[in-house]
Amino acid sequence: SLQLLLSLLEVRSTMTNVTRQEEETKNDSKSENDRTTTGSSVEVVKTVYLVRHAESEENRRLSSLKCVGRSLLRFALPSTNDIASSLHLINIPAQVNSAVSEDGQAQIANVAKQLSNDNFWQSKNIQLTAYSPLQRARGTAAGFLKTDDDDNEKEGESELEKTARILSSTKTVPRVVEIEELLEKTPAEWIPGNSDSLRRRISALEMWLSQQPETNIVCVGHSQFFKAMLHLDFKFGNCDVWQIQLNINNRKD
Predict the structure, then answer these.
(1) For 114-139, what is each residue's pLDDT tens digit?
(2) How far apart are CA 29 and CA 122, in angstroms?
(3) How far apart are CA 89 and CA 68, in angstroms?
Protein backbone atom coordinates (compact mmCIF):
# COMPACT_ATOMS: atom_id res chain seq x y z
CA SER A 1 0.00 0.00 0.00
CA LEU A 2 1.10 3.56 -0.63
CA GLN A 3 0.85 6.21 2.04
CA LEU A 4 1.41 9.91 1.57
CA LEU A 5 3.49 11.07 4.49
CA LEU A 6 1.41 14.17 4.82
CA SER A 7 -1.63 15.16 6.76
CA LEU A 8 -3.58 18.38 6.75
CA LEU A 9 -1.92 19.44 10.02
CA GLU A 10 1.60 18.39 9.02
CA VAL A 11 1.82 19.80 5.52
CA ARG A 12 3.81 22.93 6.21
CA SER A 13 6.38 21.23 8.43
CA THR A 14 6.78 18.12 6.26
CA MET A 15 7.01 19.80 2.86
CA THR A 16 10.07 21.77 1.83
CA ASN A 17 9.87 24.39 -0.89
CA VAL A 18 13.31 23.95 -2.44
CA THR A 19 13.02 27.05 -4.59
CA ARG A 20 12.79 29.18 -1.44
CA GLN A 21 14.73 27.25 1.18
CA GLU A 22 18.15 25.64 0.67
CA GLU A 23 18.40 22.10 1.99
CA GLU A 24 21.52 20.99 3.80
CA THR A 25 20.88 17.26 3.75
CA LYS A 26 23.21 15.08 1.73
CA ASN A 27 21.69 12.68 -0.82
CA ASP A 28 22.91 9.20 -1.35
CA SER A 29 24.51 8.89 -4.79
CA LYS A 30 23.17 5.41 -5.22
CA SER A 31 20.00 4.72 -7.21
CA GLU A 32 17.93 3.77 -4.16
CA ASN A 33 16.73 5.66 -1.12
CA ASP A 34 16.71 4.17 2.37
CA ARG A 35 14.90 0.87 2.74
CA THR A 36 13.81 -0.75 5.99
CA THR A 37 12.53 -4.28 6.41
CA THR A 38 9.67 -4.94 8.84
CA GLY A 39 8.21 -8.41 9.22
CA SER A 40 7.15 -9.66 5.78
CA SER A 41 7.30 -6.29 4.02
CA VAL A 42 9.99 -3.98 2.67
CA GLU A 43 9.41 -0.27 3.16
CA VAL A 44 10.68 1.95 0.33
CA VAL A 45 10.83 5.70 0.78
CA LYS A 46 10.57 7.68 -2.44
CA THR A 47 11.31 11.38 -2.74
CA VAL A 48 8.99 13.20 -5.13
CA TYR A 49 9.38 16.84 -6.18
CA LEU A 50 6.08 18.40 -7.22
CA VAL A 51 6.47 21.30 -9.64
CA ARG A 52 3.69 23.64 -10.68
CA HIS A 53 3.98 24.90 -14.26
CA ALA A 54 5.04 28.47 -15.07
CA GLU A 55 2.47 31.20 -15.59
CA SER A 56 0.18 30.31 -18.48
CA GLU A 57 -1.85 32.54 -20.76
CA GLU A 58 -4.90 31.47 -18.74
CA ASN A 59 -3.20 32.57 -15.50
CA ARG A 60 -2.35 35.91 -17.11
CA ARG A 61 -5.93 36.44 -18.28
CA LEU A 62 -7.34 35.54 -14.87
CA SER A 63 -4.96 38.06 -13.31
CA SER A 64 -6.27 40.68 -15.74
CA LEU A 65 -9.84 39.81 -14.78
CA LYS A 66 -8.98 40.36 -11.12
CA CYS A 67 -7.48 43.74 -12.01
CA VAL A 68 -10.72 44.66 -13.80
CA GLY A 69 -12.72 43.68 -10.72
CA ARG A 70 -10.51 45.68 -8.38
CA SER A 71 -10.78 48.74 -10.64
CA LEU A 72 -14.56 48.52 -10.72
CA LEU A 73 -14.71 48.21 -6.93
CA ARG A 74 -12.77 51.47 -6.73
CA PHE A 75 -15.17 53.01 -9.28
CA ALA A 76 -12.22 53.39 -11.64
CA LEU A 77 -12.00 52.48 -15.31
CA PRO A 78 -10.10 49.22 -15.98
CA SER A 79 -7.25 49.35 -18.46
CA THR A 80 -8.00 48.47 -22.06
CA ASN A 81 -5.39 45.69 -21.96
CA ASP A 82 -6.96 44.08 -18.88
CA ILE A 83 -10.41 44.17 -20.46
CA ALA A 84 -9.17 42.71 -23.75
CA SER A 85 -7.21 39.99 -21.97
CA SER A 86 -10.17 39.10 -19.74
CA LEU A 87 -12.49 38.68 -22.70
CA HIS A 88 -10.38 35.80 -23.97
CA LEU A 89 -11.54 33.78 -20.95
CA ILE A 90 -14.87 33.33 -22.73
CA ASN A 91 -13.13 30.74 -24.90
CA ILE A 92 -12.99 28.04 -22.22
CA PRO A 93 -11.39 25.27 -24.36
CA ALA A 94 -8.49 27.60 -25.15
CA GLN A 95 -7.84 28.10 -21.43
CA VAL A 96 -7.77 24.38 -20.65
CA ASN A 97 -4.62 23.88 -22.72
CA SER A 98 -3.11 27.35 -22.79
CA ALA A 99 0.60 27.89 -23.44
CA VAL A 100 3.18 29.45 -21.14
CA SER A 101 2.97 33.26 -21.09
CA GLU A 102 5.86 35.65 -21.68
CA ASP A 103 6.22 36.18 -17.92
CA GLY A 104 6.05 32.41 -17.53
CA GLN A 105 9.03 31.98 -19.84
CA ALA A 106 10.99 34.36 -17.60
CA GLN A 107 9.93 32.36 -14.52
CA ILE A 108 11.18 29.15 -16.15
CA ALA A 109 14.52 30.74 -16.99
CA ASN A 110 14.97 32.08 -13.45
CA VAL A 111 14.10 28.83 -11.65
CA ALA A 112 16.04 26.70 -14.17
CA LYS A 113 19.11 28.84 -13.48
CA GLN A 114 18.64 28.42 -9.73
CA LEU A 115 18.24 24.64 -10.05
CA SER A 116 21.36 24.53 -12.22
CA ASN A 117 23.36 26.65 -9.78
CA ASP A 118 22.28 24.34 -6.95
CA ASN A 119 23.21 21.28 -9.07
CA PHE A 120 19.68 20.06 -8.31
CA TRP A 121 19.38 17.25 -10.85
CA GLN A 122 22.67 15.63 -9.84
CA SER A 123 22.75 16.37 -6.10
CA LYS A 124 19.19 15.07 -5.66
CA ASN A 125 19.95 12.13 -7.97
CA ILE A 126 16.79 12.74 -10.04
CA GLN A 127 16.15 9.59 -12.04
CA LEU A 128 12.74 10.29 -13.56
CA THR A 129 10.75 13.34 -14.64
CA ALA A 130 7.03 12.99 -15.36
CA TYR A 131 4.90 15.79 -16.75
CA SER A 132 1.29 16.55 -17.65
CA PRO A 133 0.35 16.51 -21.36
CA LEU A 134 -0.91 20.11 -21.22
CA GLN A 135 1.21 22.73 -23.02
CA ARG A 136 2.09 24.77 -19.94
CA ALA A 137 3.41 21.72 -18.09
CA ARG A 138 5.28 20.40 -21.14
CA GLY A 139 6.87 23.81 -21.68
CA THR A 140 7.90 24.08 -18.04
CA ALA A 141 9.41 20.60 -17.97
CA ALA A 142 11.35 21.27 -21.18
CA GLY A 143 12.56 24.62 -19.87
CA PHE A 144 13.88 23.04 -16.68
CA LEU A 145 15.53 20.11 -18.47
CA LYS A 146 17.11 21.85 -21.43
CA THR A 147 20.86 22.37 -21.71
CA ASP A 148 22.83 25.05 -23.53
CA ASP A 149 23.01 22.80 -26.60
CA ASP A 150 19.20 22.61 -26.69
CA ASP A 151 19.00 26.39 -27.20
CA ASN A 152 20.38 26.01 -30.70
CA GLU A 153 17.37 26.71 -32.89
CA LYS A 154 16.57 24.28 -35.67
CA GLU A 155 15.58 25.90 -38.96
CA GLY A 156 11.80 26.28 -39.20
CA GLU A 157 11.27 24.72 -35.76
CA SER A 158 8.18 25.89 -33.84
CA GLU A 159 8.08 26.32 -30.07
CA LEU A 160 5.99 23.15 -29.75
CA GLU A 161 8.48 21.22 -31.88
CA LYS A 162 11.39 22.53 -29.78
CA THR A 163 9.62 21.43 -26.59
CA ALA A 164 9.01 17.96 -28.02
CA ARG A 165 12.66 17.70 -29.13
CA ILE A 166 14.01 18.61 -25.69
CA LEU A 167 11.66 16.26 -23.84
CA SER A 168 12.53 13.36 -26.14
CA SER A 169 16.30 13.81 -26.18
CA THR A 170 17.31 15.43 -22.88
CA LYS A 171 20.31 13.97 -21.07
CA THR A 172 19.58 15.87 -17.84
CA VAL A 173 17.73 12.88 -16.33
CA PRO A 174 17.76 9.20 -17.33
CA ARG A 175 14.02 8.97 -18.06
CA VAL A 176 11.31 11.48 -19.05
CA VAL A 177 7.66 10.48 -19.49
CA GLU A 178 4.31 12.16 -20.18
CA ILE A 179 1.42 10.81 -18.10
CA GLU A 180 -2.30 11.53 -18.30
CA GLU A 181 -2.71 11.15 -14.54
CA LEU A 182 -1.08 14.57 -14.00
CA LEU A 183 -3.72 16.47 -15.99
CA GLU A 184 -5.22 19.50 -14.25
CA LYS A 185 -8.64 19.49 -12.65
CA THR A 186 -11.09 19.71 -15.55
CA PRO A 187 -14.05 22.12 -15.87
CA ALA A 188 -16.41 19.17 -15.31
CA GLU A 189 -14.60 18.24 -12.09
CA TRP A 190 -15.39 21.66 -10.62
CA ILE A 191 -19.10 20.76 -10.59
CA PRO A 192 -20.18 19.89 -7.01
CA GLY A 193 -20.48 16.15 -6.55
CA ASN A 194 -18.48 15.44 -9.69
CA SER A 195 -14.97 15.08 -8.27
CA ASP A 196 -14.74 11.28 -8.40
CA SER A 197 -12.69 11.30 -11.61
CA LEU A 198 -10.15 13.66 -10.04
CA ARG A 199 -9.80 11.43 -6.98
CA ARG A 200 -9.34 8.41 -9.28
CA ARG A 201 -6.57 10.19 -11.18
CA ILE A 202 -4.84 11.13 -7.94
CA SER A 203 -5.00 7.50 -6.78
CA ALA A 204 -3.75 6.37 -10.18
CA LEU A 205 -0.78 8.75 -9.97
CA GLU A 206 0.12 7.52 -6.49
CA MET A 207 -0.08 3.92 -7.70
CA TRP A 208 1.99 4.74 -10.77
CA LEU A 209 4.68 6.38 -8.63
CA SER A 210 4.78 3.33 -6.35
CA GLN A 211 5.30 1.02 -9.33
CA GLN A 212 8.25 2.86 -10.87
CA PRO A 213 11.75 1.56 -10.12
CA GLU A 214 13.06 5.10 -9.61
CA THR A 215 13.11 6.57 -6.10
CA ASN A 216 13.87 10.25 -6.84
CA ILE A 217 11.19 11.66 -9.12
CA VAL A 218 10.07 15.06 -10.40
CA CYS A 219 6.41 15.58 -11.37
CA VAL A 220 5.49 18.71 -13.34
CA GLY A 221 1.78 19.41 -13.05
CA HIS A 222 -0.94 21.76 -11.90
CA SER A 223 -2.00 23.70 -8.81
CA GLN A 224 -5.54 22.39 -8.35
CA PHE A 225 -4.43 18.79 -8.85
CA PHE A 226 -1.64 19.07 -6.26
CA LYS A 227 -3.91 20.99 -3.89
CA ALA A 228 -6.45 18.16 -3.98
CA MET A 229 -3.77 15.47 -3.82
CA LEU A 230 -2.22 16.89 -0.65
CA HIS A 231 -5.45 18.24 0.92
CA LEU A 232 -4.01 21.75 1.06
CA ASP A 233 -5.78 25.03 1.76
CA PHE A 234 -3.46 26.92 -0.62
CA LYS A 235 -2.14 26.57 -4.15
CA PHE A 236 1.47 26.24 -5.24
CA GLY A 237 2.86 29.36 -6.93
CA ASN A 238 3.95 29.21 -10.55
CA CYS A 239 7.25 27.30 -10.88
CA ASP A 240 7.25 26.37 -7.19
CA VAL A 241 9.12 23.16 -6.40
CA TRP A 242 7.93 21.21 -3.35
CA GLN A 243 9.32 18.02 -1.88
CA ILE A 244 7.24 15.19 -0.43
CA GLN A 245 8.05 11.65 0.60
CA LEU A 246 6.08 8.54 -0.30
CA ASN A 247 6.21 5.55 1.98
CA ILE A 248 5.62 2.34 0.03
CA ASN A 249 5.25 -1.02 1.71
CA ASN A 250 6.10 -3.89 -0.63
CA ARG A 251 5.33 -7.41 0.48
CA LYS A 252 8.21 -9.86 0.30
CA ASP A 253 7.55 -12.97 -1.73
Answers:
(1) 999 889 999 999 999 999 999 999 99
(2) 9
(3) 13
